[in-house]
């Protein structure tokens, strides 16, 4: 990102229309797509992509216009993420987490206004990224309940933070962490404390070596008695107050995370179309695209992707228009979009024979990436149980 000296000269962004934002993303997509296979193969982080996103003015997409950002709504943000995800899903995931933080921050997150302004300004002027660090080795996903083992101890000089976070997406590039903690008070509170990356006592352990989204830098972050200013508390509340799901978070995950996995499937669709058009087995004497079976399976892929497009656009548009879906509705959209995306890529694989599973072809990578949707919060079982309990009036 730019240096502090350079950032002082940066002027507030002129807010463009949606078409201009999408065009910026489209310009970057070929660059990201060319880099993606290399970063996937060695599990390296695409720092250059985030410099490009900063230079294109896309990092403060969901930062409010009052703070110099674009103030994009859910619909525009989902469209930008879809473009980036079709090129490099790992970059899109890090970007989505950053967008979600500012999207929620601008609405109902409990951020003190001073901190919200600070983070917005740094995103605009210096490309500073933020993500929430919530998951822990023993706790698992906080969405399933339980108090974190990461402890915040209040002292006269500041909070002293100790704990261990896993799956910290974007860890190599983040400037700020919103860390999920509990206090050491007689009656513990739970919530977030804002932490500047790189402070003494913080260690990034490069543990991320998963099947998919390999370039997302989702490493462990260790906090060993890290000193944080007292006024960097974001929202510390009695644990019971966190049991009610946040509908804004749910919409953001449905639209933004859903757009990523749908984008992966769209890239797979594009690859298989080209394969069917150009692959001409000697036994057939014509392209595979002429086979009714291939046409039918491709039609099934198109059906799933058209349903996804309608669902993502509907949930995002409703939110932007002031008709916020319920948390269950949003989670059902995420579940449906993700499963449609996985099924679409599997259908593409069924048409490709061994070719699609070769490491030299992008379809193999798309399959590994899209499978991550099954474990991305909220997971399917939790969504179905919540929907079932609601239907039963429980």
Q: How many β-strand stretches? A: 8
Low-confidence stretches: 2-15
Radius of gyration: 22 Å
Q: Please state the second-level CATH architecture of the largest domain.
A: Up-down Bundle
Mind telling me the CATH class of the largest domain? Mainly Alpha
Structural class: alpha+beta
Query: In angstroms, what separates the terminal alpha carbons?
Result: 50 Å
| Integer tally of domains | 3
- Largest sheet geometry: 8 strands, mixed
Helix content: 40-55%
CATH fold descriptor of the largest domain:
Butyryl-CoA Dehydrogenase, subunit A, domain 3
Helical segment count: 11
Give the overall average pLDDT: 92
In CATH terms, the superfamily of the largest domain is Butyryl-CoA Dehydrogenase, subunit A, domain 3
Give the strand content.
5-15%
Helix-strand string: HHHHHHEEEEEEEEHHHHH
How would you describe this structure to a colleague?
The structure is a single chain. The chain is α+β, with helices and mostly antiparallel strands. It has three domains: 125 residues, Butyryl-Coa Dehydrogenase, subunit A, domain 1; 106 residues, Butyryl-CoA Dehydrogenase, subunit A, domain 2; 146 residues, Butyryl-CoA Dehydrogenase, subunit A, domain 3 (Up-down Bundle). Helix content is 49%, strand content 13%. Strand 4 and strand 5 form a beta hairpin.
